[in-house]
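The pair is listed for reference:
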Amino acid sequence: MSDTELIRLKPRRIRVVCWASAAALLVVFSLVATSLTGRTGDGYGTFQRGDQLAMVGLGFFGALAILLFTRPRVEADARGVRVRNVIGSYELPWEVVRGVRFDRGAPWASLELHDDDVLPMVALQAADKEIAVEGVRALRRLHQAHLAALAAGRTSR
């Protein structure tokens, strides 16, 4: 394993679902906006152009909120691992990582840290099946290479 190997992982299935959902939400809100015309019922109010634009704007912001779920990524190299989840990012050296976990039935993989904390890696989702398993194996290989380098450094002293 070379020192320059860089692993980049991101979820596959959720990205497709999110993009399709965001587009559908925008279309639905635009269609609702076009139907907002005339009187508001028995009252004195009427729907105006601003109301239609507000509905399209709500659809736009809703679509952006859905697209936040396409944000997760994991990058790793010989120095450490960088995890970006829906909210929050972490950059950890391999020294603080005890292991890479992907428990049976878990929705995504996680990093087990030496301080007994567990950091979820939302980018490696069970829904992606074999792609996620290969990603976990690659992270484990990098972690093992780091542990082997540490052991070799201790024995040479």
Q: What stands out?
A: Residues 36 and 47 are 6 Å apart (CA to CA). The chain has two domains: 13-69, 72-155. Residues 13-69 form one domain. The chain has a mean pLDDT of 90.
